[in-house]
Amino acid sequence: MTVLALTLTAAIVALGLVAIGVGAADVDEATVLEVIGRRLGLIRGENVTELADRIVWELRLPRVLGALAVGASLALCGVILQSLTRNELADPYLLGISGGASTGAVAAIVFGVSVPFVPEHLTITGMAFAGALVALVVVLVLATGRSGTLPPGRTILAGVAVGQLATAFTSLAIMVFGERDAARTVLAWTFGSLAGVRWPSASVLVGAAAVVLILLVFATNTLDAFAFGETSALALGIDVTRARWTLLVTTALVTATAVAFVGQIGFVGLTVPHLIRIATGASHRTLLPLSALAGGALLLGADTVARTVRDGTEIPVGVVTAVIGAPVLVFLLRRQAARS
């Protein structure tokens, strides 16, 4: 575990320096470090220009932190859902959260929803978060049994149903009411982008990732028990209903936050937990922190590729993660087939 953790940490540092330095205006690593050191009050940084300071500190550094936070959050949520549902295909978007967020965002874009004194991008973010919360409430209402339990199978079915309904509404709104520019904006949002991440949104995303990671530090034994089934968890004295409610709601809220700020980014929460399990085993004491590091590194690398692979054009980061994640998923399926 230690070697892998150090390797992932070194990769994140290296990717971070590259991501901050490359772009429409390149900045060398020495200047990047000088800007950060100056902003943190560690050095005087007399050679830093105003342009370099703005590029590094105001534009690229918050985007890097946002990518790390979202990648870590999605990977952690994937670990939780795969353990709770015992479904290897579970990912953070399984509960219909992304569909609800898309519905909220599309409503804001297509129907021109506006709030006085609030910028348009913040209105879209707020509507996306509200849509995600509505989807979560509907899923929980549909899935909850009379005794207050939250069966994983029923929860998954409710999430799929709500997600499909939201997708249908989104498509209908775009086709009937959307103009060409609105459709283009919606398409870019649904594939995910970190282009709009600045310090306020980066702070929220980092805070959400930190909260879920801290919570999971105290839930490793619970998740280990769920990995062997609900009966085993009950035998170990775990309050299954309470634990499932707490973890599912936490997962949904963190996913809703990520989707509201950066859109839908697939495959991170699905593939990263599987790869880390292959490398270190199924113990959540190691699986959780390593998945967070790997998820952050994956999304940071994907975002860097997305905005630099073609001059003057930024590819949606969800397209890059799909290109990376789909072959990984095929590899995992072939590996599982060879073992069965």
Give the helix tally: 14
Number of strands: 0
Structural class computed from helices and strand pairing: mainly alpha
Q: How far is the N terminus from the C terminus? A: 27 Å
Main beta sheet, described? none
Beta fraction:
under 5%
- From the alpha carbons, calculate the radius of gyration and give it in angstroms: 21 Å
Arithmetic mean pLDDT: 87
Order of helices and strands: HHHHHHHHHHHHHH
Low-pLDDT segments, ≥5 res = none
What overall form do the CA principal axes indicate? globular
Query: How much helix, percentage-wise, in residues?
Result: over 70%
Considering the chains and any ligands shown, give keywords for the structure.
340 residues; mainly alpha; globular
Structure description:
The protein is mainly alpha-helical and 340 residues long. It is 76% helix and 0% strand. The chain has 14 helices and no strands. The chain is globular and about 65 Å long.
In short:
About 75% of the residues lie in helices and about 0% in strands.
Helices, strands, pairings?
Layout: H1 2-21, H2 29-39, H3 50-85, H4 97-110, H5 120-143, H6 152-177, H7 180-190, H8 199-217, H9 220-227, H10 230-235, H11 240-262, H12 268-280, H13 284-308, H14 317-339
Helix pairs in contact: 1-3, 1-13, 2-3, 3-8, 3-9, 3-11, 3-12, 3-13, 4-5, 4-6, 4-7, 4-11, 5-6, 5-11, 8-11, 12-13, 12-14, 13-14
